[in-house]
Amino acid sequence: MESQTQQSRYVRTVSSVAALGGLLFGYDTGVMSGALLYITPEFHMTPTQEGRVTAMLLVGAAIGALLGGRIAEMLGRRLSLIVAAGVFILGSLWCALSSSVFMLASARTFLGVAVGAVSIVAPMYIAEMVPARVRGRLVSLNTLMIVVGQLVAYLVNSVLASSGNWHLMLGMAAIPGAMLGIGMVLLPDTPYWYARHNRVDRAHEVANRAGMHLSEFLDAKEEQGPSRRKEWRALQQRWLLITVMIAIGVGITQQISGVNAVIYFAPTMMSQVGISTTNSVYTAILIGVVSVVACWIGLKIVDRVGRRRLLTIGLSGNVISLILVAIMFRHATESTAMAYLCLALMALFVAFQQSAVSLTTWLLMSEIVPVQVRSIGMGMAGLMLWIANWFVAQFFLPMVDALSATGAFGVFAVLGALSLVFVRIFVPETTGRSLEEVSEEFRRRWS
């Protein structure tokens, strides 16, 4: 038997390596916020084209999320992450070498497939590799690495701002891609996956190293082995279908808050209210720092406060912050001080989002999808999350043109309020409970 110290060290190592996928996810979604300021004049892009180049990553991500769960079931979580790392490397180099809007959009779509797959498989891998008592903190490490990746992107953008070298901004993602691939080569797959594929001895070995009980994974083998029903047929059971729909709703909740409108376009918005292009790139660093600090705080408290309660607090803070942003943006062009006040309010919104909403939604998605439909359920939830993300990226700037920034942020405030109602009605508390216990609650409630 492994000692408790060895088990703790092992699960931290496993989670840290898998969370490099979150770093890549964050870098590739955040880097365009600064790169667009230099790509747009070089390619003479319209606001619609800006949105398209940004959003094509999300088209690929939707495909990757839909397929990610199924591929992870066939190949294993570990090998899926290794393949995704290879796609990250190739996609990053393709972006860096792009010489037209079409080529860049195509490269971003290809890269997005890896982003979407990793967004599903990395939390799944961590959730299945760690004990329930630390699952919240360690799965949330993936979310922390997403915002760290975004901050790294902002810092790279700021360093390269004077040269405007957007090719290097986009190409740098190949480095953490290589780190993820090498790290995953050295790790095993999860006990869940081994048990489902009749490798009980290997499941026992990995579970023992992580401080978990083999009985959990024998249940997985019974439900997911070769004689199990196909997952699509399993969705005919009312409680399983409703549970997957709730997971989809949780994923959409994260995106319709409007967070990625700020992440992707904060520099663009700041440049529109009179702040210089170079300084607009630097303002994104504030958003990045706030994201990392807030997410770190959320990671520390999520297992104590509880997922559902923390999500409720975050959504409430989001709505209030967005209302303030909407009001103050009407006066942002009056003075530089007003513009920076708007930036501060956007940072407040990001603090609520990253400490509570984004952190808990990725965690809840990995916890509430039952083992009987885990690959399809996670894929569907991820697909709808990325579709919602695509709509935000594609239509935010045109919506600002049509409704003004005040109107656009007001729309997000209303959607945040509706999300809060959804969470209070449908989302259960999962803190400190095994994945089987969470599924059993859904079975009792919705059968």
TrEMBL record:
Keyword list, A-Z: Membrane, Transmembrane, Transmembrane helix, Transport
Lipid bilayer topology: Multi-pass membrane protein
Subcellular location: Cell membrane
Entry keyword annotation includes Coiled coil: no
Occurrences of domain Major facilitator superfamily (MFS) profile (ranges): 14-431
GO CC field: plasma membrane
Top-level taxonomic group: Bacteria
Cross-referenced InterPro entries: MFS_dom, MFS_sugar_transport-like, MFS_trans_sf, Myo-inositol_Transporter, Sugar/inositol_transpt, Sugar_transporter_CS
Similarity annotation: Belongs to the major facilitator superfamily. Sugar transporter (TC 2.A.1.1) family.
NCBIfam families the record matches: SP
Protein name, entry field: Sugar porter family MFS transporter
Organism, scientific name: Corynebacterium poyangense
Taxonomic lineage from the root: Bacteria, Bacillati, Actinomycetota, Actinomycetes, Mycobacteriales
